Each structure stands twice: as C-alpha cells, then as structure tokens.
Amino acid sequence: MMHPRRKKKTPYYAPIITIFENGKRGDGKVILFPLSISHLLDSAGRKLGLVEGAAAAYKDDGTLITDIDMILPRDVIYIASTYHPAFVPPKANDKEGKVIVPPNSEWVSLNVGGRIFSTTKSTLTKDPYSRLAKMVLTDTVGRSGSISGAIAAHISSEEGEPSFLARSFSSSSISSLASSTSSCMSSSSSTKPLYWLRDANGCYLLDRSPEYFAPILNYLRCGTLVMDDGLSEEGVLEEARFFEVAGVEEVLLRQISTRMHPDSFTRRDILSLLLTSSTISSLRSQGINLEGVDLSKLDLSHINFKMSNFIEADLSHCNLDSAMLQQANLKGANLTGASLRGANLGGANLEGANLHGANFEDRGMTLIANLSGANLMNANLEDANLAGANLRAANLKGANLENANLRGTNLAGANLEDTNLKGAILNMTNMRGANLQGIDYDLRTVTSR
What we know:
By secondary structure, the chain is of the alpha/beta class. The chain is 25% helix and 8% strand.
C-alpha cells in the first residue's frame, strides 16, 4: 500500500538582528528580534557588556531608531552607551574602534581642532573655576549622579598626600563650586542629562585653536606661561577667556599692555635721566609709561609728567614739588609721605591712590598745589597736609580725609559725598557749592589747632 508522501516542513527561523557597539565593527552579537525599543536597549546593553548602560540605537547610516517598526529582521544595529550617546561611524575593525582612554582613568585626551592633547584630570582642575575643570567635573557627574561627590573625588588625596585642590578648598568651597556647576548644567537642559561631545576614540571634542590652546595647558601643568616666538598673545588671550583660565588672562593682559606702550621706563631709566640732566633744567617727560615702577624717594621736582601713566607706581616719599602732572593717571599709586608743594595735578586721576601723610602746603604761600578737577575717589588722604591747596570741583567721593589739614583749602564745587572728615581741620575752608551728602565727622572736625 502506497503511503502518501509527506510534505517536508519548512524550518522555522526566529527573527534576529545583529548588534555592534557604537563606532565598532567587531565583537558583534546576535539577539532575538526585540519587542520594543526599551527591550532592545536592555538586551543589547547586557550582551555588549556596556557598564554605563545603553542609551540609543542607530542604523548603519546613523539614523536614530525611535520606533521598533524602523527595524527589520537581520538588520545591523549600532548601540550607543550613556558614556557616548552620539552616533559614531563604525571603524573597519575592532582595534581601530577601541577607546584610547578608559572612562574611569585619571588620564584624559582632548581633541582640540583636530590635534590630540593628553593630560590628567588633576591638571585640568588646577583652576577649578575654569571651563576645563567644569568639563571634567560635570562629565563625571553625568556618570555618577553626584556633583559634590565628583568634585570631592577629584580633590581627594592619593597615598595620604592632599592634592592641589584639597589644599586650596574647604568643604564649604566645594559645596559652592558644586552649586555653580549644578546651575551651569541645569541651564543647558532641565530634562536631558549633560554630555560633552567626544570623538570616536573618546577624546573630548573642542572646536578651538590647538596652537593657542597648548600654552594654556602647559600653564595649568607648571604654573608658568611659556609661548613660542611668533605666537599671537591676543590669540592665546582669546582662548584663555573662552576656557576661563584667569591666571593666563592676567599674565597676558600685562604683557600686551607693556607691548602696546613701547615707551615704558624703568627706575634705572629715570635715574639715568636725572643724573645726566642739569639740576636747574626742567625735564620734559610727558606721556611716558611708568606703570608699576618703583620711584620711591627720588627727587622728581619740576619735571613735566603731563598725561603720563603712573598706575600703581611707587612714589612714596618722593619730592614732586612743582611737578607738572596734569591729566596724569595715578590710579592706585602710592604717594605716602610725598612732597607735592606747588605740584599741578589738574584733571589727574588719583582714584584709590594712597596719599597718607603727603604734604601739599608751602608755608611761604608761593607754591600752591593745584588739584582742580582731579579724581580722588576713594583715595587715602589721612594726615595729609592740603592747607591752601586748590581742589575746586575735585571728586573726593568716598575719600579718607581723617585728621587731614584743609585749612584755607578751596573745595568749592567739590564732591565730598561719603568722605571721612573726622578730626579734619576745616578753618577758612571754601566749601561753597560742595556736595556734603553722607560726610562723616566728629567733634574734632572744624576745631582750631
């Protein structure tokens, strides 16, 4: 009896997909077709051993998979971790796709304009308020979830030795920095975690000039700014401002200021000028740059310093009798104990200058000091002798005139708002039209001596 031929059953093949780690074309895994996107990410994360977990799935053309219907059986899918959620084109083999720096390493690599810099996290956090420090700290936060913990981890000691940050910051300072970092992160996105863009090798991607960045990194390493010949100071300054490295910015501003004023003089230059000039001649030195120069105890009388720069210069105990200092910039200068009899400081800027014990009075009344229209805001004139001086329309707002001698001084139209006049002598002082709002005085004021 003939038995009917049974039809051969077609074997059943369960639908599958192939998954690779983002940026790689090796060590792939085959998994069953997922039921949902969350199912896919969960299974792929475990199969590929992604410690940080899977964050996104991409097709081979970089398309982000947002719906399970976008996937077909036997598709090749690339899984991105939360450590690097952006799509990275796959490399030819696994060796090329390896990350240079492990995520938990002390070493960090930066891709600055296509050039790779390798350094340590402790170097990048030398200036804890810089953008580089925030980059390291907030990226650590993205994985650990604790800002204060991330900062504390970077300032913890190694082998019992406190790090640079540990020596510089207290627990309250750490909390303050953590607070500012939190606000920085929250301002970027209120719902999405903060990620710093990285390249295929895990390097931080920074679209900046590598030539100008190199001196900034070296400064963080050793604390000294060293620049190659021909490198633009302005270019490095712009990078320092972008990365918020205050130390580099401060150094460069001083260097640029010196370069912009090629007429800068030193104490030796002034001494040479004095020694080679006749004692009866009137030196013409207007418009020169003496910023920060130590000129203490020199005889600079009768010299023409009109419109010169004396910012933060040391002129203590100098003889400036009859010196011409009209419109000179003496902001923050030290004139303690200086003699300024008959000096002409009309329109000069003396904001914040220290004139403690300076003498403007000529007892013979032949040399009258002129400070008309001068800016003496917040200047220290304690114990100064301004008897007979002309301070008409001068700005003395917030100045300290305690125990100053203002006998016969012309203060007509001057701004004396918030000045300290305790113990000052004001006999025969002309204060017509002066602004006396908020002045501070006591019983000693205006009494004869």
